[in-house]
Amino acid sequence: MNTAQRYRTVADEVAEVCAACGRAPGSVRLVAVSKTVGPDEVACALQAGARDFGENRPDQIVAKAPAFPQARWHFIGNIQSRRIPDIVGAATLIHSLYQLRHAEKIDRAAEALGKVQDVLVEVNVSGEASKSGAAPEEALALVRSCAALPHVRVCGLMTMAPQGDLSVAADTFRGLADLAGEIRAQLPSDEAAAFTELSMGMSDDWREAIACGATIVRVGRAIFSESFQE
After folding, report:
1. Residue 227: pLDDT band by 50, 70, 90 thresholds?
2. What single string gives the DSSP state of each residue in 69-108?
3. Which of 37, 95, 102, 166 is deepest in the core (most CB within 10 A)?
4. What is the pTM of this model?
5. For residues 57 and 80, is the Cβ–Cβ distance under 8 A?
6. pLDDT the model gives residue 1
7. Which domains does the chain have, with CATH numbers?
8. 142: phi > 0 → left, psi -120 to 50 → alpha, else beta; which?
């Protein structure tokens, strides 16, 4: 299969999994993680119906976003402080915010561009040392501090699950969903209304993520890699 066929296959299965979970297909956004491919593959996915793309490096999102203004661009990688103005200039949604100092710099960069930057707070639910993110017990305070910035809108939470055991991944996703519910209940009504997104699940575990309430799944290899096999 080519990129277009793989994208349509994944998108169709997302709809099927949503239906099996009693959810509307439109309740889950499929982000095609294009970090390993060039503009030709992005164009192919766009033709197949993709509208959301994810990048983990500032250089890539800065290059691709202006070339495909019809797409929504998601920054999913580690935030480098000095590249924040570039990221804010290109990203529709930043998934990987977990430091207040970065939020403050995002706020200043967004103000300079006359925009409000949508962000997700990354939470290290599994506690793995190799993963970044705020500790679950720190997430509420961080969400509140970020939401107080005038040019930052906190739209929800993001996490990455341990690889290799889908039951552990599901536990991680349920943990994020429960945490999001606890945080939402403690936010003012206007902030709670914006706090709706759960970005969780990748090529190997997005089905489990949808069953646990994901609103965004980030899929790269299953769309862009010819060698990907389930």
Report:
1. low
2. TTSEEEE-SPPPGGGHHHHHHH-SEEEEE--HHHHHHHHH
3. 95
4. 0.95
5. no
6. 82
7. 3-224 (3.20.20.10)
8. alpha
